[in-house]
Amino acid sequence: MLHRLLLILMGLVWASTALSGDRIALVIGNSEYINEQINDLPNSAQDAKDIAQTLRSVGFRVTSGTDLTRAEILMLVQQVQKSLKPEDVALFYFAGHAIQLGSENFLIPVDAYGTDEATIRQRSVKLQTVLAEMESRADRNIVILDACRNNPFDLPNTGRAIGSVARGLAKIDAGVGSFIAFSTQPGNVALDGSGRNSPFTKALLRHLPAQSDDLHEVMRKVRRDVVQQTNGTQVPWENSSLIERIYIAGSAARVDIPQSIPTPLPPVETDGFTHQVAGLDPNGDGFLALRSGTAAAATRLMKMPEGTRLKVLGQDGVWFNVRTQTGAQGWAHSNWIRFTGVRSPQPQETCNSLWLQRNAIFARNGYCFQSPRGRQAFSNQGCRIGVTAGQIPLSTSERQEVQRLTARERTLQCR
């Protein structure tokens, strides 16, 4: 009986801890654009103000801004990111212009300009950067975009979009624990609206405060209202990898977690963990992703911070199949995995695997491989034609890693 009582108490403490995080929101609305090529959006700033007020009323700690430049947006993103903890629920709302360039989405600050893709990229804010900043700290993330795009800048636009060559924002894969909502479906343009708010934000303001609806139910009701209001011309959609139900408002503003008694964790393994996560860029995401497969688009299973001990189980090119000391198993990129323990005959110690690790750094930074071996191992798609290996812009940590791998190749007398 005493043993069962202790387990029940452990379950209550576990549930309480999981619910102890804060709810933090960053809300931005851009209406008045400096560049005359980009039409103003009268409702976007007001949409952001109303959303910020609603989120505050249901208990969110909100940082907000309107008509922000690129520098101001990045500053607020970094400011909010530093305040996040793993147990927090983080929400990002943006109303304004956004565009798709290639397969990436960009938020348009009020000081954006450009007549070519390279300039527009430099003067905009990549949406994936914002999402990565959130996912690097908080385990539950919500992104709501009342924006979509046309491309390029210099063509007419009539809604929350720029130009008319291509329509709709690119699909974004939400990492585990993330939810991304778009104001309209792919291939369509979101309307700014003729009243106080856009059709999408008007519906959000109506349904976000509902105490009994989780986030998915809120978005279902928002979609119904927008479809009715726009006669089916605008259909909000979302991409979700949430595991728990998230309630935004009222006394139900919580994350639903299992209330059953947790199964005791198995003992932490210690033998064979001869590697660890190391060499992460201090200005980057702050973690190495453990993924379900050997591709950057594979599902992220967990975040592994600097120093995470690993057992290497196998290798596929530049990817290692690894297991953590807590038992999680998946694939991780070998660029940020270092040997730390007693040497065992792991495949990464071969000349071929050292060559793969070293050249993967150059491939990631756009080097065009000329040799048959290089072209076979790495795709030259999007590489920097005419740029030599010595001209590839590597970070300090990347150069140090190239030197380490080269030295190891010399030791093994690799040719």
Automatic annotation (TrEMBL):
GO terms for molecular function: cysteine-type endopeptidase activity. Gene3D superfamilies: 3.40.50.1460, SH3 Domains. Pfam families: Peptidase_C14, SH3_3, YARHG. Residues 21-152 form the Caspase family p20 domain. GO terms for biological process: proteolysis. InterPro entries: Caspase-like_dom_sf, Caspase-related_regulators, Pept_C14_caspase, Pept_C14_p20, Pept_C14A, SH3-like_bac-type, YARHG_dom. Belongs to the peptidase C14A family. This is YARHG domain-containing protein. It comes from Parasedimentitalea marina.
